[in-house]
Design brief:
The chain is an alpha+beta fold and 266 residues long. The chain folds into two domains: 75 residues, Orthogonal Bundle (Arc Repressor Mutant, subunit A), CATH 1.10.10; 179 residues, 2-Layer Sandwich (Beta-Lactamase), CATH 3.30.450. It is built from nine helices and ten strands. A five-stranded antiparallel sheet has the order 7-6-10-9-8, with helices on both faces. A three-stranded antiparallel sheet has the order 3-5-4. It is globular.
């Protein structure tokens, strides 16, 4: 890569290792959801395996990539997701969901968010705050605890049982409120309920006085891709009102699924 001065002299300014590192990030971003192997990165970069590995490990250590097992396979890291409006500009799904989130927020009077499935955890990539003065501390680009989150429950409910077991072991199911699910058996029962009704509920399980409802978004393979959710004060919300919110979220999530060319698993 070169630059040309006013005198016409060409000046080389590209740093080869940086160019390769950026290309490696592109390869991971363009790769499958389960991640890209070292062999695939080596082939895509046209370098030796040791060079690809050194670049990948450097990016992992910096947070721009992360390695997942078995493999390892490489996926985008949190540092990338947090760039650009702390996540919104970093994920293409944000542009698709923002109009739907605005509509949900107006319709429900609640904060509306969109999450992606990040290896069994919900990671929120877009948010539209509720009208009015109430604001919830809901950062973007950060994994949330699946067992306390409506979006997390709905994602886990549609993944293999082994994922639930792994997440329960990794997190330890810590309590956030007196209503938080803290045992694997309780979590399995809650996920069965969530799967049956088609939407997830966080009934003051993450924060006292706060209610969340979420519905799943699916990709082209019928796999759960993420979720849409709304968050607001619990107040005196009735079971009927929560059920109605579930219906509203499901309809909105299905619209996003169709926009992504996805479909519900049969």
């Amino acid at each position: 890569m070169t630059d040309t001065t006013e005198s016409g002299e060409k000046r080389t300014y590209a740093v080869g290792s940086v160019v390769r590192a950026l290309r490696l990030v592109d390869l991971v971003a363009e790769g499958p959801a389960e991640g890209v192997t070292l062999t695939e990165l080596t082939r895509g970069l046209g370098t030796s395996k040791s060079t690809a590995y050194s670049l990948a490990r450097t990016l992992v250590d910096a947070g721009y990539l992360r390695d997942v097992q078995p493999g390892p396979r490489y996926r985008l890291g949190m540092a990338l997701v947090r760039l650009g409006d702390r996540a919104s500009a970093a994920h293409p799904l944000a542009d698709v969901v923002k109009p739907v989130l605005h509509e949900l927020s107006r319709q429900t009077g609640m904060t509306a968010r969109a999450a992606i499935n990040d290896d069994g955890y919900p990671m929120f990539i877009a948010r539209v705050d509720a009208p009015g003065t109430i604001r919830f501390h809901t950062p973007l680009g950060v994994r949330e605890l699946p067992h306390t989150s409506a979006a997390g429950k709905v994602i886990l409910s549609l993944l293999p049982a082994g994922v639930t077991e792994r997440v329960a072991e990794e997190t330890g199911l810590p309590p956030r409120t007196r209503k938080t699910i803290t045992s694997a058996a309780e979590l399995r029962a809650e996920l069965d309920l969530t799967r049956g009704r088609g939407y997830g509920v966080d009934d003051e399980e993450d924060s006292d006085g706060v209610l969340c409802v979420a519905a799943p978004v699916f990709d082209h393979t019928g796999t759960v891709f993420g979720a849409l959710s709304v968050t607001g004060l619990k107040g005196d919300q009735s079971v009927r009102q929560i059920t109605e919110l579930g219906g509203v979220l499901t309809e909105a999530a299905d619209r996003i699924t169709r926009a992504l060319g996805g479909h519900r698993a049969l």
